[in-house]
Amino acid sequence: MLKTIICAFFFLFAVAIVRAQSTDSVYNRYLDFNLARLQGDQDKVLELGEALIPDTGKLPQKARINFFFSAGKMYEDTDQPDKAVAFYEKVAAAVPNYYVVHRALGYLYLDKLKATEKQLNAPANDAATNARILADYTKAARIVLAHLEKAQACDPSDDTLTIIKLLYKNIKDAQRLTTLDDRLKQLNKNCIDILADN
User: Fold this and answer.
1) CA distance 50 to 17
2) What pLDDT is attached to residue 1?
3) Tell me: the pLDDT tens digits for 42-63?
């Protein structure tokens, strides 16, 4: 009986050590990824980042969120906007007041919106098709606006403000355009501009 208890204790101790080493290994790979980013080695960043993605659950929560932002940036920089959006959305959900991610999402979604805008400006086939395209455009524009408004509230930019106003005019939402300044003042509260690892 005592021998069984001792064996079970050593087994649990060994499992704990392996888990700790595994977590340390993942964190060390995360540090290597960050070092490659700082050194500007894009090929190595992509290689290390993609290898780290399956193990992000082993990172501490704040480091994981920071990695998600860095992975989004990695994919944005390598012209993979859909992958970038997926990681940026995780960051926005975890840290909704981090305006930097909202600016990135707003502009990535804006690029997608331009394809719908081309359809909107193309010669119409029929009224039903035009109505569907306008509805799709309006829905997509509202997503862009939500992100760009948060970014604008926290870090004002004339270019971003121009885009916001143009989008409201395009979707013919005069009421939201009129109340924009009040919304920006509200959104300005609790802005976060830096993600911490710990």
Assistant:
1) 26
2) 57
3) 999 999 999 999 999 999 999 9
